[in-house]
């Protein structure tokens, strides 16, 4: 099965103009990508099976980091060195994280992908301008970076023990930074009984989430 087909569902992909047909679709959320705070606060800590798994994993990474940080095998100098490397690595991993979002977009079928940033607010995000995705595809978009990067760093943790503090710190920092992606998953989970479509508008810096209306009655 082609990779693109493995992400897509059987639901026909509408166009943005189709979603604005109020007889068929309802706008249920409009997210300003430059001001995501309200959305994150609302959905970051909604608990379901997926988010509980994520937060348990996050707690494990924090525990790993603390365990390595208090490991008497490290000298003060080596501890400081690996901490600095972990902080630098957490910056370097950002474009890798966004690149995985971009590759997932391409696998889904997006013709073009853009990277956008609000440097003063420390926001970097990946968008496929006006490319509509359904909720199944959006879940893959949200979770793929944490899956791939966590698997890679988890493997390194066991094969490069001399850098365990650096790897544990980087894994912890990256996992905690993924709470925005998990908020998206939580939002989609809360509306799991409906057929959801979403697209980004780069010019307006907004994401739109539409639910298909039940016209069976």
Number of helices: 8
Question: Which strand order do you get reading across the main beta sheet?
Answer: 1-6-5-4
Task: Kindly give the count of domains.
Answer: 1
Q: How is the main sheet built?
A: 4 strands, antiparallel
The run of helices and strands is HHEHHHEEEHHHEE
Choose one word for the global shape: elongated
State mean pLDDT (0 to 100 scale). Answer: 90
Q: What fraction strand?
A: 15-25%
Q: Structural class, from helix and strand content? A: alpha+beta
Cα-atom Rg, whole angstroms? 19 Å
| Uncertain segments | 1-10
Give the N-to-C terminal Cα separation.
37 Å
Helix content: 55-70%
* Total strand segments: 6
Give a nutshell description of this structure:
The protein has 217 residues and is of the alpha+beta class. The chain has helices at 3-7, 16-19, 37-43, 49-69, 76-108, 135-159, 164-177, 179-190; strands at residues 25-32, 114-118, 123-127, 133-134, 196-201, 206-212. The chain has one domain (32-212).
């Amino acid at each position: 099965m082609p990779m693109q087909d493995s992400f897509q569902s059987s639901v026909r992909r509408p166009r943005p103009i189709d979603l604005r047909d109020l007889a068929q679709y309802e706008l249920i959320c409009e997210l300003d990508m430059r001001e995501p705070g309200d959305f994150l606060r609302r959905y970051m800590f909604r608990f379901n099976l997926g988010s509980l798994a994520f937060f348990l994993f996050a707690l494990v990474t924090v525990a790993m980091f603390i365990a390595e940080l208090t490991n008497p095998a490290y000298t003060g100098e080596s501890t400081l060195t690996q901490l600095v490397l972990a902080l630098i690595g957490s910056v370097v991993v950002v474009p890798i994280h966004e690149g995985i979002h971009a590759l997932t977009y391409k696998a889904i079928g997006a013709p073009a992908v853009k990277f956008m940033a609000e440097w003063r607010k420390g926001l970097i995000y990946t968008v496929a301008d006006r490319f509509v995705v359904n909720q199944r595809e959006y879940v893959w978009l949200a979770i793929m970076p944490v899956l791939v990067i966590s698997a890679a760093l988890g493997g390194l943790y066991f094969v490069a023990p001399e850098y365990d503090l650096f790897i544990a710190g980087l894994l912890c920092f990256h996992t905690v930074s993924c709470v925005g992606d998990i908020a998206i998953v939580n939002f989609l989970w809360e509306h799991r009984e409906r057929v959801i479509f979403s697209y980004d508008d780069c010019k307006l810096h907004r994401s739109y989430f539409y639910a298909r209306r039940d016209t069976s009655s």
